[in-house]
Design goal:
alpha+beta; 5 helices
Length: 191
């Protein structure tokens, strides 16, 4: 399995229709709905916002797709086929179409929607997928800058920071086992 390195956005034009393709990292189905809401709000004049997604779960892969008004099977399925063919997980692909006045036919639609996702995957970069789990770490507030230094040094980031306790904040992470070990080894150097 592989995951995208960066969220990306590319634009392709086919017979005067404009196709804006966005790839977005996801870790839950809820994030699919949230990102689609953002796209629909930003692209109010769009004819279609077709999408496909794949999400790694504990023992399986969940998938979803939508043609969003395009002829059945001409958008969501070709997009999902590209994601599946690349073995990409934890990714949402959304292709926003602005109709240019020339019909592409079902074959043309299948080709362009697949091409959009394939090109966006090239642009975003791919790497091996690593299973990550939730991890929480609490520390004295005086160590905040050092914790940030460690995160920067190891190219890691927190998914949430909870300062409800002003003396002992809690940082939340999604870490692989190796990332967790590296982080704790660095933290132990200051204790």
């Amino acid at each position: 399995m592989k995951e995208i390195i960066n969220d990306t956005c590319i634009v392709l034009t086919e017979k005067k229709s404009k196709f804006i393709t966005r790839l977005h990292k996801i870790t839950s189905v809820k994030q699919v709905d949230e990102f689609l809401k953002e796209i629909r709000a930003a692209e109010k004049g769009a004819t279609h916002n077709c999408y496909a997604w794949r999400l790694a779960e504990k023992q399986s892969i969940a998938e979803g797709r939508s043609d969003d008004g395009e002829p059945s099977g001409t958008a969501g399925q070709p997009m999902l086929s590209v994601l599946s063919g690349e073995d990409a997980v934890n990714v949402l692909a959304v292709v926003t179409r602005y109709f240019g006045g020339i019909k592409l036919g079902t074959g043309g639609l299948v080709r362009i929607y697949g091409k959009c996702v394939k090109e966006a995957l090239k642009d975003s970069g791919m790497r091996s997928f690593i299973v990550r789990e939730n991890f929480e770490y609490s520390f004295h507030i005086s160590k905040t800058s050092y914790i940030q230094y460690i995160l920067d040094k190891l190219s890691l980031f927190s998914t949430k920071r909870d300062f409800s306790d002003p003396i002992y904040p809690v940082y939340h992470f999604l870490f692989s086992e190796n990332e967790k070990t590296d982080f704790l080894n660095e933290v132990n150097k200051i204790n």
